[in-house]
Amino acid sequence: MTARIIDGKIISAELRARVAAEVTRIKTDHGITPGLAVVLVGSDPASEVYVRSKHKQTQEAGMASFEHRLPADVPQAELLALIAKLNADPAVHGILVQLPLPKGLDSTAVIDAIDPAKDVDGLNPTNAGRLASGLFALTPCTPLGCIIMAKQVHASLEGMNAIVIGRSNLVGKPLVQLLLNENATVTIAHSRSRDLPALCRQADLVFAAVGKAEMVKGDWIKPGATVIDVGINRTPSPDGGKDKLLGDVAFNEAKEVVGAITPVPGGVGLMTVACLLVNTVRAASAIHGLPKPAV
Ligand SMILES: Nc1nc2c(c(=O)[nH]1)N[C@@H](CN(C=O)c1ccc(C(=O)N[C@@H](CCC(=O)O)C(=O)O)cc1)CN2
């Protein structure tokens, strides 16, 4: 069987074009420019790359981008004061604090401080609770991207057996809720699950979000299954060159078995930023009481 490669480059570009069209419409019809504020604390090299990409793509979509950089040793109170300022700023419709935060800062308190209406990461307990209750919520970006990618292969996920490997607040837990909203049958597995390979083999849809390079092997996968690989594991290159990016799935083994699979890089990661733009448009529309946007 030849595996279909689910191309994040193409799907994210299409989504970003739809966001840009929606931004133009909101500006023309309502005179509102959606604005996103991204807060980067410290200088983690991967976070720097992600924040630069967020800034560039926000501007390309026609939105206002506000970047705030703080030193790694910033006092918690100063970070919370910046969040309070952004909560009150009418030009800012979305607030995102890049994670992970440097040691010594309490990320739970920081996320709690973000106005739920501007929480474009969907991590505030109000949004997490609303999502779990089936209400309108801003939803974490990577799980949103996972669902969009799965739906490129299956128009409906209803009744499918899905496994989510990983139970983080950023990916695993919200992804389970989104899959339930799609009427999938969901198993959530984690480091303490017994016989993970056997659980995995029952799934039509595999979402791997464990953060361990190539942990999910080819013989764990049901033939023809769809695999969405959320892992981005930086691994030293054997020849001492640039680090390699590996997913949580052993891609070369898996592609011989699956029906469709996302690559790493070039898969889910690219959807994360595109979905952040979607959430910013949704937040701006909700804050101003505009009709639901077309993205
Ligand atoms: N506040 C948040 N922090 C973090 C999130 C998040 O959703 N909210 N997710 C990740 C990092 N992330 C966005 O912030 C992110 C990850 C990956 C990519 C991406 O484009 N990946 C590329 C490879 C890029 C590379 O070379 O590193 C790909 O997979 O092809 C974008 C954004 C943790 N923090």
From TrEMBL:
It catalyses: (6R)-5,10-methylene-5,6,7,8-tetrahydrofolate + NADP(+) = (6R)-5,10-methenyltetrahydrofolate + NADPH; (6R)-5,10-methenyltetrahydrofolate + H2O = (6R)-10-formyltetrahydrofolate + H(+). Pathway: One-carbon metabolism; tetrahydrofolate interconversion. Its EC number is 1.5.1.5, 3.5.4.9. Residues 6-121 form the Tetrahydrofolate dehydrogenase/cyclohydrolase catalytic domain. Residues 140-285 form the Tetrahydrofolate dehydrogenase/cyclohydrolase NAD(P)-binding domain. The keyword Aminoacyl-tRNA synthetase does not apply. It holds the Pfam family THF_DHG_CYH. NADP(+) binds at residues 166-168, 232. Keywords: Amino-acid biosynthesis, Histidine biosynthesis, Hydrolase, Methionine biosynthesis, Multifunctional enzyme, NADP, One-carbon metabolism, Oxidoreductase, Purine biosynthesis. Belongs to the tetrahydrofolate dehydrogenase/cyclohydrolase family. PANTHER family: C-1-TETRAHYDROFOLATE SYNTHASE, CYTOPLASMIC, C-1-TETRAHYDROFOLATE SYNTHASE, CYTOPLASMIC-RELATED. Catalyzes the oxidation of 5,10-methylenetetrahydrofolate to 5,10-methenyltetrahydrofolate and then the hydrolysis of 5,10-methenyltetrahydrofolate to 10-formyltetrahydrofolate. Homodimer. This is Bifunctional protein FolD. The lineage of its organism: Bacteria, Pseudomonadati, Pseudomonadota, Alphaproteobacteria, Hyphomicrobiales.
